[in-house]
Write a structure and sequence with these properties.
The protein is of the alpha/beta class. The protein has helices at residues 26-31, 75-80, 121-129, 149-153, 192-204; strands at 2-15, 18-24, 37-40, 52-55, 58-60, 65-71, 88-95, 107-113, 133-140, 157-162, 169-170, 185-189, 209-212, 228-232, 238-242, 249-251. The chain is 15% helix and 36% strand. The protein binds flavin-adenine dinucleotide and FE2/S2 (inorganic) cluster.
Length: 257
């Protein structure tokens, strides 16, 4: 875990409520793995006091470039939109665990919803380079909110589900879960309800899955206990885990809803 002062290379709005932040952060870029996240502060100040967790959307260790795609929700993310080229921001990272790619994985399904889509892009890239066949289902409220769709298309087949039907299937991404295909792994990130549905669907179709969970975080590195979830151990016992330190990626069979 590093505390790095990153330089803003670009910060622009790409969709309604979605912004893309390009950063020069060579130390974090050299260590980060797909699925890990960072704690980010918008300004060189104590306001807001708590950094905000953000997944990493592009990791380029050679150039030191990393990219975040963020949904503007509250105070912290609104302040991020004020960042301009050459400003500096504090990053704490890389944090948490990463997506696991098992040796015998030949075909994988990636399911992303809302702002959870961003952290799945480096995974799609890694799977592609490891010659795993990748299918992607992206869910959003409408066509305008589908982020990274073109980039995912470079790594596999992509289909969409939008609530208003403006792109692809009209409805939820989980409505079109392809249970008839023998995937070796399903990887998912999105709203908690979507993650719960992905776990149930994967179980129903006897496919293993990994989900990245999002929770409000205080510290981001395991000390404040502000991000607890319930996990079922192999012996059936339910224990508490920290999403920031023990996650954010969990196997579907572990998470106790
Ligand atoms: C691992 C992980 C990866 C994520 N990746 C992404 C991503 O790639 N893109 C994206 O758009 N979003 C991502 N998120 C979600 C993102 O972190 C939230 O949307 C963001 O924190 C919202 O911050 P805000 O200040 O805009 O909203 P707010 O609602 O103002 O604050 C959000 C949260 O900050 C904390 N907080 C604020 N004030 C206090 C306080 N006084 N005391 C305690 N807690 C406080 C709370 O947890 C609060 O609910 C991720 C979340 C996690 C956990
Ligand atoms: S955010 Fe502090 S323990 Fe997870």
């Amino acid at each position: 875990m590093l505390l790095e002062k990153a330089v803003v290379l670009s910060n622009k709005q790409i969709r309604p409520d979605y912004w893309q932040l390009g950063l020069y952060a060579p130390q974090i870029a050299a260590q980060a793995q797909p699925g890990q996240f960072m704690m980010v502060t918008a300004a060189d100040s104590f306001d807001p006091f708590l950094k905000r967790p953000m997944g990493i959307n592009i990791i380029d260790p050679k150039s030191g470039f990393i990219r975040i795609i963020y949904l503007v929700l509250g105070r912290g993310t609104k302040l991020l939109t004020n960042l301009r080229e050459n400003m500096e921001i504090d990053l704490l990272g890389p944090l948490g665990n990463c997506w696991k790619i098992e040796k015998d994985c030949r075909r994988a399904l990636i399911m992303g919803g809302g702002s959870g889509v961003a952290t799945l892009l480096p995974l799609a890239r890694e799977l592609f380079y490891r010659r795993v066949q990748v299918d992607v289902i992206l869910g959003a409220r409408s066509k305008d909110y589908l982020s990274c769709a073109d980039e995912f298309a470079g790594y596999g087949s992509v289909i969409y589900a939008t609530i208003d039907g403006s792109a692809g299937y009209k409805g939820l991404a989980t409505d079109i879960f392809p249970g008839d295909i023998r995937y070796d792994m399903v990887y998912a990130c999105g709203p908690m309800k979507m993650m719960e549905n992905v776990v149930h669907l994967s179980r129903e179709h006897h496919i293993r899955c990994q989900v990245s969970l999002e929770e409000n975080m205080g510290c981001g590195y395991g000390v404040c206990m502000g991000c607890i979830c319930s996990v079922r151990q192999a012996d059936g016992q339910i224990v508490y885990k920290r999403i920031c330190k023990d996650g954010p990626v969990f196997y579907g069979e572990e998470v106790f809803w």
